[in-house]
Amino acid sequence: MSVARFWRKIPQRYNLIGTVCKTCGRHFFPPRSFCPDCRRSGNVVEYKFKGTGTVVTHTIIRTASDQFEDLTPYALAIVQLDEGPRITAQIVCTPEDVKIGMRVKGTFRRIAADGASGVIYYGTKYVPDE
Amino acid sequence: MRDVAVIGIGCTPFGEKWGSSFRDLFVEAGTLALDDANLSGEDIDAMYVGNMSAGRFIEQEHIGALIADYSGLSTRHIPSTRVEAACASGGLSFRQAVIAVASGMEDIVVAAGVEKMTDVGTGASVDALAGAADREWEGFVGATFPGLYAMIATDYMSRYPLTREQLAQVAVKNHYNGARNPIAQFQQEITIDTVLKSSLVADPLRLFDCSPITDGAAAVIVAPFDRAREFTDTPVRVLASEQASDTITLHDRRDISTLDASVTAGQRAFKTARITPKEIDLVEVHDCFTIAEICAIEDLGFCKKGEAGMLTMEGVTALNGDLPVNTSGGLKACGHPVGATGIKQVYEIVTQLRGDAKGRQIDGAKIGMTHNVGGTGATVAVHIFGV
Questions:
Q1: Which residue in A33, A109, B170, B275 has the fewest CB atoms around it within 10 Å?
Q2: B135 Cα distance to chain centroid
């Protein structure tokens, strides 16, 4: 991923900045500037997510693309954030310990790197919160 | 709208074809299809080609013109268009050809699909395929394609009584069919034990739950049904051509274990063809992973949610069952050159409806269906065919 492409999403990747529609209360992550429910009557503003949620489903990745190969095996899950939106994220713990319904919270982590001398990509992973 | 018929089909053998280039593959498939329809290049009015990622696999874009050129049609300047929807590229290419003929814009149209995947290593190809999902919010955090389908399997198995053995039986059945299909990548039968003893790729999915990396090309020729008998004694009528879309990410779906795009495209297709699922004699579904075949059988309306594993174990979807599924061997055993798969499904159904499928022939098959999925279900193309 190019530096600019990564850099412009830093608020979302580091600090979980999304949006909320003040007309209907629906939260969006990643942020949307247009509420698909309220359309033109929507009023979408920035919102910082709490970073807490629940595991909806999960797997253990044992064969990855080159960038993630040295992390295998790692736990990957779909997490429902408490505000409503779902995201895909890594869960940092013994991979076999991840269970559906497990409470998790966001934590700032290194995600990947472009080789030994390239950009290091940071972002949010999740850890057990129970 | 005019009725449309398939008048010619061609397909290369699928596999790891180190000696064949991208160009060799589509020329081979196209020539076979033209020969089958007793046509020459002079008769072709337009071409569509399904291709997911030549840019990543062979660093070549502008595939439409390339294919027309190497098919010997550059001096005729016919319109030639690349269609891309990840693994559903072939299904959409076919649909574009059907639309062109049905509308009256064109008469004789080639729908092709091609993918040359083995010119890059496994890591690079896994990464290219991850582009079928959301690069920013799935791929970036370490999601792979098997990983996404594995999360469907985890969700499914937590809600419905699907056993690990039933899931494995999907692969066993498809390898059995593949062993009877001369173009299939895998020609050997396997057992449930083969699947359960293969290495884990993304829990609970193992290596033998996954379709392989494959090179291959397929081409079919469509024409107005009224003209079809000028070219063939065995035209196959296109009874429905439908397509649906859904969220690009798996996590944004209404239900992780239901591909709503499959449900919608399937319902539309049955309505257009004015038939019910019970009238389908055989179906080629998009089994990129074993769990995908389970979901497809249910989402298309052949049984209730949660029942497909049991039906698979009982042999209902086998060659001699009430609803043969993936007689070609499916993506699992026939192979999955992503852009070509949707066209290969049409090739298989037409072969069956003509009665030419030899060792895997479904006797008396009159109505067949194809189901081609892009990504984890963001695009679905469904077609119904009849004779």
A1: A33
A2: 23
Per the structure, the complete domain to which residue A117 belongs is given by: 51-128
Using a 10 angstrom Cβ sphere, with 0-12 exposed, 13-18 middle and 19 or more buried, the burial of residue A3 is exposed
pLDDT digit string (tens) for B229-254? 999 999 999 999 999 999 999 999 99
Q: Between chains, do B123 and A66 touch, taking CB under 8 Å as contact?
A: yes
As a whole number of angstroms, the distance between CA B218 and CA B23 comes to: 12
Judge if B202 and B246 occupy the same domain: yes
Cα A27 versus chain centre, distance: 14
- The count of structural domains within chain B is 2
State the complex-level ipTM. Answer: 0.97
Chain A residues near residue B139 by CB distance under 8 angstroms: 65
B129 has pLDDT over 90:
yes
Q: Tell which of B174, B203, B236 closes a domain.
A: B236
Catalytic residue among B11, B87, B210, B295: B87
Domain of residue B349: give its range: 133-212+238-386
Q: Is B126 part of any domain?
A: no
Chain B: nearest CA to A20, how far in angstroms?
16
Is A9 a domain residue? no
The string of pLDDT tens digits covering residues A59-90 is 999 998 888 999 999 999 999 999 999 999 99
Q: B30 near B229, Cβ under 8 Å?
A: no
Q: Name the average pLDDT for chain B.
A: 97
Chain B residues with beta carbon closer than 8 angstroms to that of A125: 141
Of B144, B204, B249, the CB nearest to A65: B144
Query: Quick one: B182 and B49 in the same domain?
Result: no
Place B367 in a pLDDT band, splitting at 50, 70 and 90: very high
Distance from CA of B172 to the nearest CA of A (A): 23
